[in-house]
Amino acid sequence: MSDAKSDANSDAKSDVFFLAEFAAGAPSHAAQELASGAASLAKQSGGSAVGLAYGEGAADGAPSLRTWGAARVLVLGTHAVPAITHAAAVASALRDGGVALLAPATPNGRDLAAATVGLLGVPAFGPARAVRFEEGGLKVEASTLQGAWVTISEPADGAPTPAVALVLAGTFTPKEGSGTAAVETAETDDGPLGAARIVETHQEGKAAVNLEEAQFIVAGGRGVGSADGFTQLQQLAEALGGAVGASRAAADAGWVPYQLQIGQTGKVVKPALYLAAGISGAIQHRVGMQTAENVVAINKDPDAPIGEFADLFVVGDLFAIIPKLTDEINRRKGA
Ligand SMILES: Cc1cc2nc3c(=O)[nH]c(=O)nc-3n(C[C@H](O)[C@H](O)[C@H](O)COP(=O)(O)OP(=O)(O)OC[C@H]3O[C@@H](n4cnc5c(N)ncnc54)[C@H](O)[C@@H]3O)c2cc1C
């Protein structure tokens, strides 16, 4: 069935909404993932994928969300932060129904999802590593601290809709098609949350590639030993076109800002390559990176727990290995 036909036959109560953040007129990678995820869920629910777009250039870029599967897009506003200022518009868009709202598990996604749940009193799930329809109902899968366990949850019978699912990066794969989504502008009644303002901003360290969207992550732990030691990891990350991450031990030591922390109380990442240097592999770290496609660990202790789940475990001193690796990558790039 063509998209146009399926849109015409769709039932608004079965729509699957998703949050789509824009920067410079382009949807974030998370928005592309959620658009494709919403489109595939909407096929099962009998509705359409509907984007709720916000951020710089959202109005101009909104039609492009069709490329990843959105049938319609409602533009909430052209600023990304504070994200909660869009909550009243999101709640208003959802009042007529829909089965699910997919929100990215990013700082802005979390803010907006939480405020929406508060305004509408709808159930919330996640951070999810899978969202699907099964036997006509929405099922949300989340991994637990132990890593080996998952919980599969669903809204209770008769619960208000739509359910909100906070979705981890990499849960859905963006699928590119073509076409232009129908675009509307949201009602502008901001409500009390619309009064939130940013009064000051501070930058901690160098602006870096967004960890949650990075395809290559070079993460350092206590074994890196100092803030200076992280310079070598930064050089390798730059050579790879990736981002630097850290264990909590490194963030607690003040060597890197907390926004680089990966794990249970940090970020959850899903890069193509996760290179862990001087990280032992504690379970609280593992839950933040176990969804990486390939894990390479450098550790001087052959018995470090990370060796049990790394795809490639290099036993050695990170300070002897990382600079050579960086030089070799730069040499090959230059070749
Ligand atoms: C409630 C709770 C929440 C937590 N949340 C998080 C979280 O979100 N993220 C997180 O990371 N941790 C978290 N932790 C902490 C976690 O339990 C570990 O303490 C932490 O992950 C250890 O960090 P690390 O691997 O860098 O340090 P360590 O465990 O001390 O490991 C350092 C490693 O570096 C190796 N090493 C040392 N020198 C070198 C060298 N020159 N070359 C190569 N290898 C070297 C050592 O052999 C060792 O394996 C949490 C803990 C609790 C209780």
CATH class of the largest domain: Alpha Beta
Number of beta-strand segments: 16
Cofactors and ligands present? flavin-adenine dinucleotide
Q: What is the CATH topology of the largest domain?
A: Rossmann fold
Q: Shape from CA axes?
A: globular
- State the helix count: 9
Number of domains: 2
Output the structural class.
alpha/beta
Order of helices and strands: HEEHEHEHEHEEEEEEEHEHEHEEH
Indicate the radius of gyration in whole angstroms: 21 Å
In terms of DSSP E residues, the strand content is: 15-25%
Which blocks of ≥5 consecutive residues have pLDDT under 50? 1-8
Mean pLDDT across all residues, rounded? 90
Percent helix, as a range, is: 25-40%
Explain this structure to me?
The structure is a single chain. The chain is α/β, with parallel strands linked by helices. The chain has two domains: 3-195, HUPs (Rossmann fold, 3-Layer(aba) Sandwich), CATH 3.40.50.620; 211-334, Rossmann fold, CATH 3.40.50. 27% of the residues lie in helices and 24% in strands. It is built from nine helices and 16 strands. The chain has helices at 3-9, 29-45, 58-61, 87-94, 107-120, 229-240, 248-252, 283-289, 318-334; strands spanning 16-23, 26-27, 49-55, 72-77, 100-104, 124-128, 130-134, 137-143, 150-153, 163-167, 182-185, 216-220, 243-246, 273-277, 294-299, 312-315. Strands 1, 2, 3, 4, 5, 6, 10 and 11 form an eight-stranded mixed β-sheet that branches. A hairpin with a 2-residue loop joins strand 1 and strand 2. The longest helix has 17 residues, at 29-45. It is globular. The termini are far apart. The model is unreliable at 1-8 (pLDDT under 50). Residues 221-223, 247-250, 261-266, 278-280, 282, 284-285, 288, 298-301, 304, 317-319 line the site of flavin-adenine dinucleotide.
